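Narrative of accomplishments. A recurring question from our advisory board has been how the design workflow behaves on a single, concrete structure rather than in aggregate. To address it, we present the structure tokens for one chain from the evaluation set, followed by the sequence designed for it. No filtering or post-editing was applied between the two.
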């Protein structure tokens, strides 16, 4: 591989396919001695992110049963 005048490199297709790298995948470089490593950054699990965002947002002192009743109630009435 060569670096372009704009300091860019092209990742060969066989490497992109092996690592499932597409246009929107984030990558990170790591330097270790005289070696440069390219690492695929794994996106955070969406459910975990949502849970962490919602943590501490409850404002009522409801029991689990009360919350489940509210969650399962039919709002279309």
């Amino acid at each position: 591989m060569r670096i372009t005048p704009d300091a860019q490199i092209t990742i060969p297709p066989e490497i992109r396919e092996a690592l499932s790298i597409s246009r929107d995948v984030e990558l990170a470089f790591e330097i270790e001695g005289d070696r440069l490593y390219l690492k695929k950054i794994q996106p955070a699990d969406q459910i975990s992110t949502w849970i962490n965002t919602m943590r501490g947002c409850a404002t009522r002192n409801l029991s689990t049963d009360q919350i489940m009743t509210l969650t399962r109630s039919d709002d279309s009435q």
